[in-house]
Amino acid sequence: MPGESINLVSDYPDEFTTVTHVVHDASLANFPWLYADRPFVIDSVNVCAMGTAVGGTATLQLIEVVSGTIPTSGNIDSGTTVSSAISIAANTAATAGTITTTANTIATGSWLCVKAAAGGGTLGNFRGAIQIRMRTRQK
Fold it and tell me: CA-to-CA distance for 56 and 3, rounded, in angstroms?
């Protein structure tokens, strides 16, 4: 069966979507999450933590790493802050982060990354989910 031609980004409509990343092992650390194939806007971020505490000062933030840059721990640490630091504790229902409304538009070619700091515990103990609500239509 032959292949099919691809749709270009300009061929598909605006997106209004919610994306969730479930963490169930020691993978919560600085990591690239979403690549922007066109500009998008982050409207909200929530974290749900289950199980063992990761330390009272553990935090999570959304960070933009600019187009043309490969995300690494170093440039995630120094990237553009999209959300406030969200405190992570054990068995916490959805905890909303504050969006930085002057920096929540992710440019084409950039990466939306997660920056996590263990604080008093270890990130290897974290179990839970990170959820963002985003859209491609700008006001």
Answer: 52
Helices first, then strands: H and E counts in the chain: 1, 10
Q: Are 117 and 59 in contact (CB under 8 A)?
A: yes
Average pLDDT for residues 40-69, to the nearest whole number?
A: 82
Residue 78 exposure: Cα atoms within 13 Å on the Cβ side: 5
pTM: 0.83
C-alpha to C-alpha distances, 105 to 25, 42, 43, 76, 100, nearest whole angstrom = 30, 6, 9, 16, 10
115 has which bridge partners? 61
The values of phi and psi at residue 104, to 5°, are -100, 10
For residues 33 and 113, the answer to whether their CB atoms sit within 8 Å is yes
